[in-house]
Specification:
Strand content: 15-25%
Number of strands: 20
Low-confidence stretches: 1-13, 33-37
Distance between the termini: 49 Å
Number of helices: 16
Largest sheet: 8 strands, parallel
Radius of gyration: 24 Å
Structural class: alpha/beta
Oligomer: single chain
Mean pLDDT: 89
């Protein structure tokens, strides 16, 4: 409501809008060093979990992660990070795109086709040898990254390249034959093939053309590897809105239905005519991902497509790879909040994107660039990485959850809790371009700075003493941005300084003991704003 007010009230006669007035007041306060006091009292959250109510843990966030254009996987530094991510976070699938490109030695013209599978083999061999399943995006996704998101990016694509797949049936046949021969049909049948239709940036290809391309690929591939999963179309509900249902209805009438329907989630408003021109396109909705999933399921139901799984193949808090919030603990809290909030709703949630190497550019000479990756170019784990790591520590059974936490157990009296104190962005954020947010002033963009007192009551516990170990990543610990600040935002880091940061970007740990009484164990913890915690509980 606050936000509405600020946007609607025109300010005084000077013609300034309320946000500008606010900015001036704030600049005055900042320059005169008036600090808003940290709110003393924190809000309280209680979660009751029950060991008798255990359900198997479905690790849908661990199923797939976006890696980048196939050509990146020929690089040593990217491979090293992929190996690290497989070893530490054990993703089952990795999603790659742009496998049909001249850099990959595959040239699909309208009439003349030249191709050599040598480089593609190197990429897929690398993944398969690491026991990573490929999730391959066949659409011609451009290798672009954005500094900020505005309407101009909707006009980038004018390429009908998807149709080239239809014109090259012989090539598709060679490709799938080559794969089944090289990797064996059983292996290839575990792969996912996705065909993007209208990504965040709309392509100029009609629905009819899309269906024809999809059916061409589907028929040829299923002929050689019947079990391979082929779906699409990378829908962004913020772009197509209600027409999603109509597209699905038409798809249902076609010869082949997709094995899965895929959507993307990036919180932007494209449809709404944003009245106040001072605003960026960011959607202010705090549960954006949950709403998109809910809406997509609702429309799939109306279209009679309830038996087809819905996959979120890309999700992030932003499309910008020059937004310093990507490097901050805001991002880790955002991720944990969303992974808990959407638990059990979709089989796959593919985070965008694994590494900052994806978003390199000529403008990049800073140590932290505001990229969407889990890891920096110099192999330092960002708070976003620890969001995944903490969630991965959840035990095989889930015994309780609420909006701030999820509690898990295993058979032998070991428990793991993952919790967060996410703070949403406020109206100031919407008046800024994403690449203009100052690393020192992030605080100004959050709804509040209150800490959270959480209390977990776990029922049906054995009597006796338990050890509690709390790992935390937050504004002052394990946070690469904060550690870099201690080094005076030094631009060019030596190997020694990079190693120093690697050692310091780790969760902090505190340990204490609690006693279970009346078959109930109560654990209390205090969580700072934008902090995440992983809590291990074990019988002593």
């Amino acid at each position: 409501e606050m936000q509405q007010k600020n946007e609607d009230t025109a300010a005084s006669d000077t013609g300034e809008n309320s946000i500008q007035v606010f900015e001036r007041v704030e600049q005055y306060l900042t320059s005169n060093l008036v600090q808003a006091p940290e709110v003393a009292d924190s809000s309280v959250s209680v979660l009751i979990a029950d060991t008798m109510a255990a359900e198997p843990n479905v690790r849908y966030w661990q199923r797939m992660i976006n890696i980048g254009p196939a050509v990146n996987l020929l690089r040593y530094d990217v491979r090293a990070q992929v190996q690290f991510l497989k070893e530490k976070l054990d993703f089952e699938y990795m999603r790659i795109w742009q496998i049909f490109s001249e850099e990959m030695l595959i040239q699909l013209g309208e009439h003349n086709v030249k191709y050599n599978f040598m480089l593609l083999d190197q990429v897929l061999d690398f993944l398969v040898n690491l026991k990573i399943k490929p999730h391959i995006e066949f659409g011609f996704k451009k290798h672009t990254y954005f500094e900020k998101v505005d309407r101009s990016i909707l006009k980038i694509y004018k390429d009908h390249s998807l149709i080239r797949l239809m014109q090259n049936k012989g090539f598709l046949e060679d490709l799938i034959k080559h794969w089944t021969t090289r990797y064996g049909t059983a292996e290839v049948e575990t792969w996912y093939i996705e065909l993007e239709k209208n990504s965040v940036i709309q392509e100029t290809i009609s629905l009819e053309q899309y269906f024809e391309v999809f059916e061409t690929v589907y028929a040829i591939f299923k002929n050689y590897a019947p079990g391979i999963q082929i779906g699409g179309a990378g829908f962004s509900l913020n772009v197509i809105g209600k027409s999603f249902e109509d597209i699905l209805r038409q798809w249902k009438k076609r010869k082949y239905q997709p094995d899965f329907v895929s959507i993307y989630s990036y919180p932007y408003n494209y449809q709404n005519k944003i009245v106040d021109e001072q605003r960026n396109e960011y959607a202010s909705n705090e549960s954006y991902l949950a709403d998109v999933i809910y809406e997509a399921h609702a429309q799939m139901k109306m279209a009679g497509m309830t038996d087809i799984p819905l996959l979120v193949t890309e999700w992030s808090s932003t499309l910008s790879n020059r937004n310093c919030l990507n490097d901050s603990c805001y991002k880790s809290a955002y991720m944990v909040k969303n992974m808990i909030e959407n638990y059990g709703k979709v089989p796959t949630l593919g985070y965008w994107v694994a590494t900052d190497i994806f978003s390199e550019g000529i403008d990049l000479n800073t140590f932290l660039s505001g990229g969407c990756g889990l890891i920096t170019q110099n192999d330092i784990c960002k708070p976003a990485y620890f969001a995944m790591e903490f969630m991965n520590h959840l035990e095989p059974y889930i015994i309780g959850k609420n909006e701030n936490a999820i509690v898990s157990s295993r058979k032998d009296g070991v428990y793991f809790i993952c919790c967060h104190n996410y703070k949403h962005l406020n109206f100031r954020y919407y008046s800024r371009n994403e690449n203009e947010i100052e690393i020192e002033n992030q605080q100004r963009y959050f709804s509040d700075n209150e800490s959270l007192q959480m209390s977990f009551r776990i029922r049906h516990m054995n009597h006796g003493k338990y050890i509690v170990k709390i790992f935390f990543i937050g504004p002052t610990h394990g946070n690469v941005q904060n550690e870099w600040k201690q080094l005076g935002y030094l631009e060019s880091l030596s190997i020694y300084e990079t190693d120093y940061l690697k050692r310091h970007c780790q969760p902090e740990l505190s340990v204490f003991y609690v006693e279970a009484k009346n078959n109930e164990l109560v654990i209390e913890t205090h969580i700072a704003a934008q902090e995440i915690q992983g809590i291990v509980v074990a019988e002593v």
